[in-house]
């Protein structure tokens, strides 16, 4: 403690002064943020703004999980990566960008796919998890793991000209399985790489994911639990809808079914959703 | 709307999103008049789903419904509220209600 | 023309493939975007995501106006700037970032304050103007100039935990003066540097500004004309409201008052709003 | 609300934003019952503004109003629609209307 009732150094006071000036955020919000740790799964279209804003705002420790490398066709939306990193691991590129805008935070790189075998260990080390992945099995796996280890999950998605955002497993709220107990048919699971996406749409959703993570980490504001934001870029309309609470019948978070660590590790998410956790990129043969 | 028997007709706004609009000629917003069945005094979501399947869905109905309800991965919202909170298939609809069907997205 | 009905090179097809895959955007939307020119006034909290996403998506020519230098207390929200650029002009830093994510677009730097003396000349060179400034006189000046030269204006603002967004002077819609014929009292004009701002709030609004600019440039979607988006980060609520159309009585765009270039150049915006166009930064003496 | 004379009372939701909430103890959303004046049969925005000035604004009323209307830089919205489109001060309010007052922001 500096004797002023907080731990902020003069450098930090300077850097975060526009946060400290906010009566509803202030020294207390910033201090909590600086002590928080946030894991971002996916350093792509959603992960780019999530990571940049979390690094900039002073999230104390930032973990990044991604097994992919930067490709030219990512560049239209994955603004954290520069052309110089094409062909290199996204995690490395993203971590370098985070450091370059804020050298005072800690960045941890996980250059590997998230799987049931490593998820518990990695995710346990963080206070908050941000799902910025691009496929259904990962979304089920990350949510289930968050329930098992009791962490809040900020979940965002974007395809085409639409985006969706909500917070799962927060303060008694629902988990992903409460909302979607049965996986959709694989034909309904379009990914950005297959179906296309307007680059700035994951930008909007990613910024909103960073905001939700900041609200949870700082204890300021009302996180989007039991609520969902539906974004339609074409019309510019955003709906804020009320969704169900935790389901007593949920097989993962419900009354009679506390999913154990072992059950989680043995669950076959690829078989459950009939799709791969690390899908192969589609080779585009346009024209 | 028939002015003499407006009771038997219900004006609703239906919206499809997250790709479901592709099943209805890529039109997202539909202002519709749903006629109530002979003798019926109310319209439930169950009735509406069967009306939609007959009147709106042009192709691949299995991408919208499974059995008599929406397929897994589709959220149904009545006036911006999850239908799980209002009784799911038994939810009673009122004049000018807005019903949204949205397919969950996985991309990023 | 490449013989395929478009001008896209194989490199461009690769880079923008996820836009080309979108049925509602496609080759036509991307081609228009590549031929468009967009001026962004302000390379700060709003300008950072606007510039990054416009550069990434392939806006053909991007102009950046800013007279400021990068400071440490900008870094919590102005994610386009890296620590290495502290003390250097924001325009230079922002242009370098745009180039590093997309070397195929043209970036023009205006390292000067926008004033009535240079606004007509600079703004005339672009199809679309994005207002990412931080003060009332600039907002009136930029809107008036857009009316005089007939350009659409994407206007965003953010202070504290709130943001606002709309499109002015588009397709017969209102201008800034239609909405706000009389300037507010100076005590009601808080800037981020005085009042504070949660860094990710201009991030959300800036992404939405980039989206509106992309919609106008590509001719895809419904721009937010005669509508305004009101964002409250604390509660996570976003309102989409309907606002008035063009006012016949507007002194700038109304029936009897086509503002001339000369009138524009002679108008004293600082006197009109009782505030400076290039406000001095507040020295923060916290604690 | 008086059940016998509910006509003379009107339930409204008032929201203040863009800094205006600072004039009402930093509370953004106010669910209020506005009593109509003796003999009045409707409530207009003009009536509501004077009610707000008397009952809600705790400090610096000049930051909210100028003369009998809102100060420059404030947008008034009735049910998410600019009051310029419904008659400004003459807009008639109805039960359960949502009225938003928002100060325009200039920062970035
Ligand atoms: Zn659950
Ligand atoms: Zn005007």
Please state how the strands of the largest beta sheet of chain A are arranged side by side: 3-2-1-4-5-6-7-8
Shape of chain B: globular
Class computed from helices, strands and strand pairing of chain B: mainly beta
What is the multimeric organization of the chains shown? heterotetramer
Low-pLDDT stretches of chain B are none
The Cα radius of gyration of chain B reads 14 Å
> What would the average pLDDT of chain B be, to the nearest integer?
90
Largest interface: A-C, 73 and 73 residues
Report the C-alpha radius of gyration of chain A, rounded: 19 Å
Report the mean per-residue pLDDT of chain A as an integer: 94
Shape of chain A: globular
* Major β-sheet profile of chain B: 4 strands, mixed
Give the class of chain A from helix and strand content and strand pairing.
alpha/beta
Number of strands of chain B: 8
Q: Span between N and C termini of chain B?
A: 43 Å
What low-confidence regions of chain A span 5 or more consecutive residues with pLDDT below 50?
none
How helical, in percent, are the residues of chain A?
Answer: 25-40%
Question: What are the main properties of this structure?
Answer:
heterotetramer, A: 287 residues, alpha/beta, eight-stranded mixed β-sheet, 12 helices, globular, B: 108 residues, mainly beta, four-stranded mixed β-sheet, 1 helix, 8 strands, 32% strand, binds zinc ion
Structure description:
The complex is a heterotetramer, with two copies of chain A (287 residues) and two copies of chain B (108 residues). Chain A has helices at 10-15, 17-20, 26-35, 47-57, 90-101, 116-124, 136-149, 176-179, 192-195, 200-218, 261-266, 269-273, and strands spanning 37-41, 61-65, 106-110, 128-131, 153-159, 162-168, 227-232, 237-242. Chain A is of the alpha/beta class. Chain A has an eight-stranded mixed sheet, sandwiched between helices. In chain A, helix 4 packs parallel to helix 10 (200-218) and helix 6 (116-124) packs across helix 7 (136-149). Chain B has 108 residues and is mostly beta strands. In chain B, 10% of the residues lie in helices and 32% in strands. A four-stranded mixed sheet of chain B has the order 2-1-8-6, with no helix packed on it. The longest helix of chain B has 11 residues, at 45-55. Chain B starts with 8 loop residues before the first strand and ends in a 5-residue tail after the last strand. The mean pLDDT of chain B is 90. Chains in contact: A-B, A-C, C-D. Chains A and C meet through helix 1, helix 2, helix 4, helix 9 and helix 10 of A and helix 1, helix 2, helix 4, helix 9 and helix 10 of C. Bound molecules: zinc ion (2 copies). The site of one zinc ion has 9 residues of chain A, from helix 8.
């Amino acid at each position: 403690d500096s004797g002023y009732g907080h731990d902020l150094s003069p450098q930090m006071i300077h850097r975060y002064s526009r946060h400290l000036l906010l009566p509803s955020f202030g020294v207390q919000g910033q201090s909590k943020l600086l002590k928080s740790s946030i894991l971002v799964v996916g350093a792509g279209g959603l992960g780019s703004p999530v990571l940049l804003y979390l690094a900039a705002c002073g999230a104390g420790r930032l973990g990044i999980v991604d097994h992919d490398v930067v490709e030219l066709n990512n560049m239209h939306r994955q603004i954290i990566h520069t052309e110089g990193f094409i062909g290199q691991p996204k995690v490395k590129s993203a971590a370098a960008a985070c450091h370059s805008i804020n050298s005072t935070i800690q960045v941890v790189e996980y250059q590997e796919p998230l799987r049931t075998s490593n998820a518990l260990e990695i995710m346990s080390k963080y206070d908050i998890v941000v799902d910025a992945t691009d496929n259904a099995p990962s979304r089920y796996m990350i949510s289930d793991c968050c329930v098992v280890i009791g962490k809040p999950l900020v979940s965002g998605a974007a395809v085409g000209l639409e985006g969706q955002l909500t917070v799962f497993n927060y303060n008694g709220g629902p988990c992903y399985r409460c909302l979607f107990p049965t996986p959709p048919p694989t034909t309904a699971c379009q990914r950005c790489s297959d179906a296309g996406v307007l680059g700035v749409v994951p930008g909007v959703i990613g910024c909103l994911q960073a905001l939700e993570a900041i609200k949870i980490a700082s204890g300021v504001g009302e996180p989007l639990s039991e609520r969902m934001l539906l974004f339609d870029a074409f019309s510019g309309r955003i709906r804020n809808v009320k969704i169900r609470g935790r389901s007593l019948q949920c097989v993962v978070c419900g009354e009679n079914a506390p999913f154990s660590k072992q059950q989680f590790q043995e669950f076959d998410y690829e078989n459950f959703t009939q799709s791969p956790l690390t899908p192969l990129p589609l080779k585009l043969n346009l024209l | 709307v028939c002015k003499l028997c407006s009771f038997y007709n219900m004006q609703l706004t239906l919206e499809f999103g997250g790709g479901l609009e592709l099943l209805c000629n890529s039109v997202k917003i539909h202002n519709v008049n749903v006629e109530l069945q002979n003798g019926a005094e109310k319209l439930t979501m169950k009735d509406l789903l069967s009306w939609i399947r007959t009147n709106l869905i042009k192709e691949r109905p299995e991408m919208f419904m499974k059995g008599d309800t929406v397929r897994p991965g589709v959220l149904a919202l009545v006036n911006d509220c999850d239908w799980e909170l209002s009784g799911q298939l038994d939810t009673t609809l009122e004049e000018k209600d807005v019903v949204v069907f949205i397919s969950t997205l996985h991309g990023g």
